[in-house]
Amino acid sequence: MKTAKKEFKDKSRAYQVYSFYLSVPIIFVLVMIASYFGYNNSSFGTIVLVFTIFAHVGASKLKLASKRKYVAPILMYVANIVSLLLMPVLFSNMSAGGNGDNYFSLIGLFVVPLEIIAMIFFFISAHDLKKAYPTMKQDSKDARATYLAAKRAAKMK
After folding, report:
1. What is the pLDDT along the chain (157 residues), one digit of tens a residue?
2. Where are the domains of the chain?
3. SS3 sequence, the chain?
4. Helix 87-95 vs helix 71-85: angle between axes, to the nearest 10 degrees?
């Protein structure tokens, strides 16, 4: 049972990371579009960051993927750190009676381009994963079927 579970995790990891590498930029674009329509929710940014962390941790365990798999998550981390470092600009502007325009202009100059480059690297890394693991979807399905069969057999005993 343990070997089937480990095999399932190992064989499905490539497909899972591939899904994360595709979903992070798509979710990020949807968040940006939603913000243009006036819907701002900070939890979406947290979701993007959590997906980025999951993608990074999963990708670090893949051996056949190129080293470019690290670029996109690191760029997202840098963008988040830069936005946090710019928080004093927001606070000082708002305490002086402003509405935070300086902060948002700096975010637009530094953070948004970093995140756009990160999204491009997410797609490039997803393409690299697809090349490195061409049968990842079928391998994941087969490993899942094997794991579920072993699980059913263990329950019957």
Report:
1. 788 888 888 889 999 999 999 999 998 888 888 888 888 776 778 888 899 999 999 999 998 888 889 999 999 999 989 988 888 887 887 788 877 777 778 888 888 899 999 999 999 999 999 999 999 999 999 999 999 998 888 888 7
2. 2-156
3. CHHHHHHHHHHHHHHHHHHHHHHHHHHHHHHHHHHHCCCCCHHHHHHHHHHHHHHHHHHHCCCCCCHHHHHHHHHHHHHHHHHHHCHHHHHHHHHCCCCCHHHHHHHHHHHHHHHHHHHHHHHHHHHHHHHHCCCHHHHHHHHHHHHHHHHHHHHHC
4. 30
